[in-house]
Design the sequence.
C-alpha cells in the first residue's frame, strides 16, 4: 500500500506523448500508458483474495468490484465468506483464509452502538495486527468541492489508543475508559508514515496529537514520531494539536500532506479530510500490517449505509473500486490497477453516472456499467 | 519490411534468439535509435538491466574521448529496474524527468541530432526531477 502515486500518474498522463485511441475523448493522452515494466516469469499467476461482503451496502459494493475485476480479466479470484456484525467474533475459518491469502477485500460490518458486542471491524484489525490504516483523501477531477488541491494521506494507528476496548464501571454511574499508548505501536506507525512519505515522494509528515492535555499518552506518541523523523532528514516534520488540525482542515487543507495520528484522532481526521475532498463514498484506503492487508472503503469503512440505500441499490461503489485498485497494486498487478483507476476517474470526470452522495441519482449498477464501459 | 513501412501494426513480439536481436535493433532504430530504448534480461530468479537494443555496443573511441555517449537508454532501463525492485514512485520520477528533457529538446547527444555531452544530459535530468 505504500506504493500508490496518483499525482505522479497524472504527470505521466500529461507528459507522455501518448497515442490518442479513437475511443478516448480528443486531447486525452491517457489511452496507453508508456511505462516499461519487466515482469518476472510467473507474475501473471492468479492470486486468491479473501472477500467479506459484509452488511448493508457491503455486498452491493463488493459485488461491484467483482464485476469490474471480471470485466478486466484481472488475475484475481475471490474466496468469499459470510461475516455479519451480529456475530460475536470473526469466524476462525475467515481469519485462516486471510492468513493464507495475505490479502482481503471487505465491505463494512455493522457495529451496534453501546451494548456488549465489540466491533468486528476492529477485532479483525487487531487479530491480524493490521497496525496501519491508510486513507487517501484527494480532489477528483469532475467533482468540485469547496477546496481544491486537497491531497492528504492519513496514516492512523489501528490497534491501540482509544480503541483498546478497556472500560469498566468503577462504581455505578462512574465509568473509566483506558486509552493505551505504547512506544512500540507509536514507533511502528511513525516508521510506516515516514517510509510511506519517502517511497511516495511526499514532502511533509504532520503528527496530530493533544499532548497539551494528555501529556503522557500523546506525549509518548509525539516522542516516537520525533525519533523517527530524525532518520528522515529529507522529509519535513511538524506537529499540530488535533482541535487546531480540524479547524485547519476545513479552512486550509492544502497545507497537509501525510498525517500520522493515534487511533481516534485518525478516525476523525480521515473522515473530515474525506468529507472536504468529495465524501467518504469516493476515498480509497486500507489496513496493513507486517503480513497481511485488508482493503476496504477508505474513510468510514464500518459504514453499512441505511435501509433506503440498500433497497434502492444506490450505494457508491467508487471508494471500494479505488481501494481494489490499491489492492491490485499491492498484489503487484500495476497495469490492471492503472486501468481500473483510469476508468473510474473517467466516469467521475464525465459526471453522467453519479450516486446520490455525489449529487446524482444513478444506481450502483449504472456506475459499475459505466466503469466497465470505460475500461481500456 | 513491415517494421520499416508499417510498424504501428506490431505490439508485443516474441522471437527466437537471433531474430529478436535483429528485430529489436530495427524497431529501436525506427522509433528513435538504440540510444534511447530501455530493456533488460530476466529469468526465474534474477534480472539484469542494460541498454535495450544493441546492449553490447561499447561505442567508438571518439565518443568515449569526448564523453558524448547517450545515457537515456540506460536511464530508462534503470527506471525499469526501480520498478522491478518495487520502487514505482522513484521509477516514475526518473522516467518523467527523462521524458521532459527529451521533450524539451535542448540537451541532446549526437545520435539524437544535438551536440551535448553525457554530463549535460545528466544535469538536465537531475534538474527536471520532482
Sequence:
Amino acid at each position: 500500500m505504500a506504493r500508490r502515486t496518483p499525482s505522479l500518474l497524472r504527470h505521466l498522463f500529461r507528459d507522455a506523448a501518448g497515442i490518442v485511441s479513437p475511443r478516448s475523448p480528443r486531447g486525452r493522452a491517457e489511452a496507453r500508458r508508456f511505462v516499461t515494466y519487466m515482469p518476472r516469469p510467473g507474475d501473471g499467476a492468479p492470486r486468491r483474495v479473501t472477500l467479506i461482503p459484509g452488511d448493508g451496502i457491503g455486498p452491493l459494493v463488493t459485488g461491484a468490484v467483482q464485476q469490474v475485476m471480471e470485466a478486466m480479466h484481472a488475475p484475481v479470484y475471490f474466496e468469499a465468506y459470510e461475516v455479519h456484525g451480529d456475530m460475536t467474533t470473526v469466524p476462525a475459518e475467515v481469519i485462516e483464509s486471510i492468513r493464507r491469502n495475505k490479502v482481503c477485500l471487505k465491505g463494512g460490518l455493522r457495529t451496534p452502538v453501546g451494548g456488549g458486542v465489540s466491533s468486528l471491524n476492529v477485532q479483525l484489525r487487531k487479530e491480524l495486527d493490521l497496525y496501519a490504516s491508510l486513507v487517501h483523501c484527494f480532489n477528483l477531477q469532475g467533482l468540485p468541492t469547496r477546496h481544491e488541491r486537497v491531497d492528504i494521506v492519513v496514516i492512523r494507528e489501528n490497534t491501540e489508543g482509544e480503541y483498546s476496548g478497556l472500560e469498566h464501571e468503577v462504581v455505578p454511574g462512574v465509568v473509566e475508559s483506558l486509552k493505551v499508548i505504547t512506544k512500540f505501536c507509536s514507533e511502528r506507525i511513525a516508521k510506516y508514515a515516514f517510509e510511506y512519505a519517502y517511497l511516495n515522494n511526499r514532502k511533509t509528515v504532520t503528527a496530530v496529537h493533544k499532548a497539551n492535555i494528555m501529556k503522557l499518552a500523546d506525549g509518548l506518541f509525539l516522542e516516537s514520531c520525533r525519533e523517527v523523523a530524525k532518520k528522515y532528514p529529507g522529509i519535513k516534520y511538524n506537529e499540530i494539536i488535533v482541535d487546531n488540525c480540524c479547524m485547519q482542515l476545513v479552512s486550509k487543507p492544502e497545507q497537509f500532506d501525510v498525517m500520522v495520528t493515534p487511533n481516534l484522532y485518525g478516525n476523525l481526521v480521515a473522515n473530515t479530510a474525506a468529507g472536504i475532498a468529495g465524501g467518504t463514498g469516493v476515498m480509497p484506503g486500507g489496513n496493513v500490517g507486517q503480513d497481511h492487508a485488508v482493503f476496504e472503503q477508505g474513510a468510514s469503512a464500518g459504514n453499512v449505509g441505511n435501509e433506503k440505500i440498500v433497497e434502492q441499490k444506490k450505494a457508491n461503489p467508487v471508494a471500494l473500486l479505488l481501494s481494489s485498485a490499491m489492492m491490485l497494486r499491492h498484489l503487484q498487478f500495476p497495469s490492471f490497477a492503472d486501468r481500473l483507476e483510469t476508468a473510474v476517474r473517467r466516469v467521475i470526470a464525465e459526471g453522467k453516472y453519479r450516486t446520490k452522495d455525489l449529487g446524482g441519482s444513478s444506481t450502483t449498477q449504472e456506475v459499475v456499467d459505466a466503469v466497465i464501459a470505460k475500461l481500456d | 519490411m513491415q517494421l520499416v513501412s508499417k510498424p504501428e501494426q506490431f505490439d508485443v513480439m516474441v522471437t527466437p534468439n537471433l531474430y529478436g536481436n535483429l528485430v529489436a535493433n530495427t524497431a529501436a532504430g525506427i522509433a528513435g535509435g538504440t540510444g534511447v530504448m530501455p530493456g533488460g534480461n530476466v529469468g526465474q530468479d534474477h534480472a539484469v538491466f542494460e541498454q535495450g537494443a544493441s546492449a553490447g555496443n561499447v561505442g567508438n573511441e571518439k565518443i568515449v574521448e569526448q564523453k558524448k555517449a547517450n545515457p537515456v537508454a540506460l536511464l530508462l532501463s534503470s527506471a525499469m529496474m526501480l520498478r522491478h525492485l518495487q520502487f514505482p514512485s522513484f521509477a516514475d520520477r526518473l522516467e518523467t524527468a527523462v521524458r521532459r528533457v527529451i521533450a524539451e529538446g535542448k540537451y541532446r547527444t549526437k545520435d539524437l541530432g544535438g551536440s551535448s555531452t553525457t554530463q549535460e544530459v545528466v544535469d538536465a535530468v537531475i534538474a527536471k526531477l520532482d
Notes: The helical segments of chain B are 2-5, 17-31, 61-66, 72-84, 88-104, 118-127. The mean pLDDT of chain B is 91. Strands of chain B lie at 38-42, 47-51.
